[in-house]
Amino acid sequence: MGYVHDTHMSQYIPPTAMMPITGTWTEVAGQVAGTICKHKAAAADTSVVYVPIPIPSNSGVDASGVPQKGSLIKSVEFDYEIQVAACTSVTAALTKIKRGADGAVAVVSTITTTQDLAAATDAADVDQHKLILTVTTPFYIENDEELIATLTIVAAGTSTVDVLGAVANYTARM
User: Fold this and answer.
1) How far apart, in whole angstroms, are the C-alpha atoms of residue 141 and residue 158?
2) Are the beta carbons of 70 and 147 closer than 8 angstroms?
3) Are 94 and 166 in contact (CB under 8 A)?
């Protein structure tokens, strides 16, 4: 059996796997024929779209307890369109949830990241967008952890938004 160390792995996350909170959202055909999206109806509100990151994890660790196999998360790309009117802002974030042991609650932590589009200008204008959220210090995901990316959309009264999908970029070491 061989060893894999691929530094250019990607996992597409469809809009049907995402969960929006606040606002009126529906699954509809996208603006481009043959595509689907999560569509936010026009309303002045703040919506958060939760995006699970389903990439492989591993329980193996080195002598210091640091995982060295599985997936080294590097970035998450969000594909979305804003129509009719610009939003106030669009920001992305990444959280890690460490599952609790029996009888213990899960622990949520925010991962330090940077986004390439300015939240109140480039990311929020009427246009098609690919917002890239880069992990400042990439890390391997342990088997008792999950990653959730979020896209927070502060919409104006007539803004409509179509979330088309996301892509997680990582190194696979197996």
Assistant:
1) 40
2) no
3) no
Residue 9, CB-side half-sphere exposure with 13 Å CA sphere: 18
Residue 21: CB atoms within 10 A of its CB come to: 12
Domain ranges within the chain, ordered by starting residue: 5-53+72-96+104-139+147-173
Rounded (5°) CA angle 74-171-164: 55
Query: Rounded CA gap, 161 and 18, in Å?
Result: 14
pLDDT tens digits along 48-88: 999 999 999 988 777 776 667 889 999 999 999 999 999 99
- Dist CA 136 CA 133 (whole Å): 9
DSSP annotation of 144: T
Domain 5-53+72-96+104-139+147-173 has CATH 2.30.22.10: no
Q: Strand, helix or coil at 12?
A: strand
Cα within 13 Å of Cα(94), Cβ side: 26
Other C-beta atoms lying within 10 Å of the C-beta of residue 30:
18
Q: What is the pTM of this model?
A: 0.93
pLDDT tens, 145-167?
Answer: 999 999 999 999 999 999 999 99
